[in-house]
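Methods: holo model generation. Sequences were used as deposited, without trimming of termini or removal of tags, and paired with ligand SMILES retrieved from the corresponding compound records. Each pair was processed once, and we did not select among multiple samples. The sequence and pyridoxal-5'-phosphate SMILES for this entry were:
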Amino acid sequence: MQIATRAVHGGAAPDAATGAVTPPIQLTTTYARDEDAQLVGEFIYARTDNPNRRALERCLADLEDVPADGCVTFGSGMAATTAVFHALAPGDHVVAPADVYYGTAKLLTAVFARWGLESTFVDMTDPSAVAAARRPNTRLFWVETPSNPTLAVTDIRGIAEVAHEAGALLACDNTWATPLLQRPFTLGADIVMHSTTKYLSGHSDVTGGAVLARADRVGDAFLAQLRLYQTQGGAIPSPFDCWLTLRGIRSLACRMRTHCDNAERVAEFLVSHPAVETVHYPGLVSDPGHAIAETQMERFGGMVSVQIRGGRDAALGVLRRVQLFTRATSLGGAESLIEHRASVEGPESATPKGLLRLSIGLEDPADLIADLDAALAPLAS
Ligand SMILES: *Cc1c(COP(=O)(O)O)cnc(C)c1O
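and the model returned the structure below.
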């Protein structure tokens, strides 16, 4: 079945006990046993497994096309990433993008470095730099595409080749694209990570994460370690979190269609505006990532970054004047968001000072364009 259909039906059927079409939220932490100490049903204790988490994991596994036990969910995207690094061993080496999600970089340098995990950050759009970063102990290459905040596009097939030649695994942070727009396993990735906080849940109301892996690529022991980190490490999503996330996924296909339609319209408006220096959107034919994006993405997503002529002050002026866009970090919700990325990242940030990152929501695109047009107008004269 097509992916839009799997998003609507994956992981759950009407409840056998009541006929409820929408699954009940099973808040219980523990499950009863009979007189002989045998379980009444198939669950033991909520941290170990529970019906809402199982439904969400089956649905996500279905969307990324891995066996049902190949998805492990967590209480945040960062907990999911932690599970992947933790399944490596002290003394192993990771190659990650120089423009990787800020939290992922911080996790490697401030948490896992203390544990003996080595890491190198490289320009993932330059295959020779990636190959040169390899060491004898390199176990994992991590890619994130399109990247944050300049929407650089990494050739997943190309990096998969480098990783496999080195006897290492390739993990892909697929948060921005979602399984609707990009299927990393079909491009050679061995592990896929999602922050389900973003498009998958889709309503800016639940934090969560997932790791997907194929046992035939990572091995049974690696997959078992991911599961062990979930059940014993305990960074789990609550049953309600899982229920909300699955509820969001039901409308993923139609939401992504609108996010993409709207982002295309906004990017085209911005690219021709005199106050704009550069628009970063892989859907634009002029974008440096467009050619590769066309070979690995269905469409180009809902994120657009724009560099305003005049740098920091000009960008902050636009930020101040928008009325419809909400000034906030994060992405993937129904509402459009705008942020001055360098301010969010702090003084160490390498992001251009004139860059604004837009999460294009589900509003009418004409209203979004009118809002940006009015905010840019004082700069255009
Ligand atoms: C938000 C995000 C994360 C982190 O996920 P949380 O759910 O906030 O922990 C990781 N990678 C990318 C690309 C993200 O956008």
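The radius of gyration is 21 Å.
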